[in-house]
């Protein structure tokens, strides 16, 4: 059950924070930045590092744990690239308190027991200062008891369903109400939508998201859910549900299918004659990275609700473009930085805004005090060991070139509410 208190937004911090949050891979993820607090001025590292973490006078070691293979690689490969680039950048700038960041990468392989096994290996054998990883909530749920048992820290970077808190996890992505409710409100108004067909992948995030969406459709929008179907991760056969969609003729297809299954789903929709310029479809799980695999011609006209799109034409996005041109280079220069990867800068900027200079003793696992010291701007509750920041959700339409055309953006930040009353 969530706490009822909420920290008031610090309006003086909102604008500069938001500008920094969208810096993409040019910003250092929180756990790297927070690792600065592993070392305090004074004695040599070995004299004060009683935790046994992988911290020396010259290096700080962290873990990267994502799916480099399997059905989720389409979404998580970009995360790996962004994290490695962040490490390169901070090391080129001199490291953390003079110490270079070293990473150990493990492959969760789109398999939840493997995620748990690799997390234990990183914490117990490699003694990493923190892990940045997971993508699906299923992988996070598998890793959670491991990081709690060994008192580790997991920085979870992408959107999630809420309804969870842990002193060993920092959640930096959108929680469900920040993404789902704004999108449903917009499409109901824009399209006069009253009937919805839900389709998702079969695990906790889509099921919980659709539970929240259903209650909002029925209780707030006074609409109706005419169908709800789930498919195992990696599924490639969607003709049955597509036939049901064609029969029920919903005003909106609401989808949270994830990973490689999206390629088959959207191709089969098109092959079945479903024209997304006429049949409204709202996704909360397809970013520019997934469109690389789907193909713009198969998803053009679909709507997405996210906190960020590369095509946003504002000062923040101009910063992103200039940083990419300056920093990315190589063959990755034109690769899109999507909503999932742009969750990573959130924690570092919140940490910078609220923690004192590196002064935390290494006598206890030190990232947690650094990540939870002082009042956090736009945080959900002072007692929650999380970072869940305000968001400005946006709706956009997919185009043939694989980009999104912005249609709507909320005027104000939507404050986080990971334990929403009436939606649990």
Total number of distinct structural domains: 2
Number of helices: 15
Query: What is the CATH class name of the largest domain?
Result: Alpha Beta
Radius of gyration: 21 Å
Order of helices and strands: HHHEHEHEHEEHEHEHEHEHHEHHHEE
Question: Gap between N and C termini, in Å?
Answer: 10 Å
Structural class: alpha/beta
- The order of strands across the largest sheet is 7-6-8-9-10-11-12
CATH superfamily of the largest domain: Response regulator
Shape: elongated
Number of strands: 12
Percent in helix: 25-40%
Q: Give the second-level CATH assignment, the architecture of the largest domain.
A: 3-Layer(aba) Sandwich
SS strand fraction: 15-25%
CATH topology of the largest domain: Rossmann fold
Low-pLDDT residue intervals, each spanning 5 or more residues: 1-42, 328-391
Q: How would you characterize the largest beta sheet?
A: 7 strands, mixed
Key features of this structure:
single chain; 424 residues; alpha/beta; Rossmann fold; 2 domains; 7-stranded mixed beta sheet; 12 strands; 38% helix; disordered N terminus
């Amino acid at each position: 059950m969530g706490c009822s208190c909420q920290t008031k937004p610090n309006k003086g911090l909102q604008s500069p924070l938001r500008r920094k949050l969208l810096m993409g891979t040019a910003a250092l993820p929180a756990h790297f930045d927070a690792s600065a607090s592993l070392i305090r001025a004074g004695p040599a590292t070995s004299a004060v590092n009683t935790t046994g973490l992988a911290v020396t006078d010259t290096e700080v070691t962290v873990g990267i744990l994502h799916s480099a293979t399997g059905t989720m690689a389409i979404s998580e490969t970009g995360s790996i690239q962004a994290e490695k680039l962040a490490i390169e950048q901070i090391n080129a700038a001199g490291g953390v308190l003079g110490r270079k960041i070293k990473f150990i990468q493990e492959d969760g392989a789109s398999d939840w027991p493997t995620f748990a096994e690799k997390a234990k290996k990183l914490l117990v054998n490699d003694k990493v200062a923190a892990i940045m990883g997971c993508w699906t909530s299923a992988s996070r749920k598998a890793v959670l008891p491991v990081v709690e048992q060994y008192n580790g820290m997991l920085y979870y970077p992408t959107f999630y369903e809420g309804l969870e808190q842990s002193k060993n996890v920092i959640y930096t992505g959108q929680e469900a109400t920040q993404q789902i409710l704004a999108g449903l409100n917009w499409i109901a108004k824009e399209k006069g939508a009253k009937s919805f067909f839900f389709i998702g992948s079969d695990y906790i995030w889509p099921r919980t998201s659709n539970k929240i969406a259903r209650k909002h459709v029925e209780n707030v929008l006074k609409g109706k859910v005419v169908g709800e179907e789930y498919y195992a991760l990696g599924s490639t056969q969607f003709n049955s549900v597509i036939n049901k969609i064609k029969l029920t003729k919903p005003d909106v297809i609401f989808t949270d299918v994830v990973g490689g299954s999206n390629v088959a789903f959207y191709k089969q929709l098109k092959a079945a004659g479903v024209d997304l310029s006429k049949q409204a479809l709202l996704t909360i799980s397809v970013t520019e990275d997934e469109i690389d695999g789907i193909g713009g011609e198969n998803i053009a006209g679909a709507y997405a609700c996210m906190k960020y799109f590369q095509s946003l034409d504002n000062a923040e996005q101009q910063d992103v473009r200039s940083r990419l041109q300056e920093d990315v280079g190589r063959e990755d220069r034109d690769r899109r930085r999507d909503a999932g990867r742009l969750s990573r800068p959130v924690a570092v900027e919140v940490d910078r805004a609220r923690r004192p200079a590196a002064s935390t003793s290494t006598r206890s696992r030190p990232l947690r005090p650094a990540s939870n010291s002082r009042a956090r701007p736009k945080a959900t509750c002072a007692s929650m060991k999380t970072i869940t920041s305000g968001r400005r959700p946006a709706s956009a339409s997919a185009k043939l070139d694989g980009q999104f055309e912005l249609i709507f953006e909320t005027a104000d930040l939507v404050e986080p509410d990971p334990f929403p009353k009436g939606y649990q």
